[in-house]
Amino acid sequence: MPLERSHVVSSFTVNKGAMIDETYAVFAAWDFSSTKKDNLERLRRENYIGVRTAARLRDFIFVLNRRFSPNDRDRPLVRLAQIGCPIEEWKPILLWHMTKDEFLLRDFLINWLFPAFIAGNYRIRPDDIYEHIRSVGLRGGKIEHVWSETTLNRVSAALLKISVDFGFLRGRVVKEFASYHLPERSFIYLLYALLEQAQNPRKVLASEDWRMFQMQPSDVERELLRLHQYRKVDYQVAGSIVQLSLPCANACEYAERMVA
Q1: Based on the domain organization, do 150 and 52 belong to the same domain?
Q2: pTM
Q3: 142 and 208: one domain?
Q4: Distance between CA atoms of residues 11 and 62, nearest Å
Q5: Are residues 49 and 170 in the same domain?
Q6: Which of 26-40, 147-161, 193-207, 245-259 has the highest mean pLDDT?
Q7: Which of 180, 201, 230 is the last residue of a domain?
Q8: What domain range is 125 assigned to?
Q9: To the nearest whole percent, how much of the chain has pLDDT over 70?
């Protein structure tokens, strides 16, 4: 049984960044007939994605190993890369899978960046989030050792840079909110993934995961009504009863059909 690390706060993995293109390339070449260890060893041996130095490749492999379970929990994400899912649709799905084991990033997106977006705090500097990071333990994060001021500064900058990479922010030193819209097929994939977890449509609508994509429950419901109108999902509400029916059995099946 793998060690449960979903609440571990890692400055190292966050500081290494999103690594979106590299992760896509590795997953596109992933061999499900081999173990995770063997796949990563092949990457280390062949460096088929062209990482410039051995040290950078070593760090990337460490982060990939830490973040994902490609043969199990994250298999749909890997399959989407293998069948050529457009990167802009794949990125938000990557983020959702990534934050299963990146507590610090998830906590920042849900509990700081989203409230800042709603409040209209559109100009953001790294030092604006220092206090939030310092208090991560109050929200369930487990810090492995005390961080220095240098580490705090690097983590703050890295969180903002990751937010830029995923399209939520823009700018260099001072960041501003970008105009972000979750792609339709990415939204539907997340419906499958969240429904598998919650087994309850009302809980899917209320899930805090939507905050990562700057969406409130009213935004989620509005998109569901639109998709229902175009017969892409079946969404019914009668008082307190919510019914959500999706055409595929699960996220894996939808992933296989998503790019077809």
Answers
A1: yes
A2: 0.94
A3: no
A4: 13
A5: yes
A6: 26-40
A7: 180
A8: 1-180
A9: 98
Q: How confident is the model at residue 1, as a pLDDT?
A: 33
DSSP state of 118: H
Positive or negative torsion for Cα 6, 9, 12, 14: positive
Same-domain status, 40 and 135: yes
Top pLDDT among 118 and 173 is at: 118
Phi–psi pair at 52, nearest 5 degrees: -70, -35
Is residue 104 domain-shared with residue 125, that is, in the same domain? yes
Domain shared by 93 and 162, yes or no:
yes
- pLDDT, residue 4, reads 57
Q: Report the alpha-carbon distance of residue 181 to residue 168 in Å, rounded.
A: 9
Whether 181 has a pLDDT exceeding 80, the answer reads: yes
Cβ burial, residue 230 (10 Å; 0-12/13-18/19+): exposed
DSSP-assigned beta bridge partners for residue 170: 176
Question: Whole-angstrom Cα distance, residue 18 to residue 2?
Answer: 23
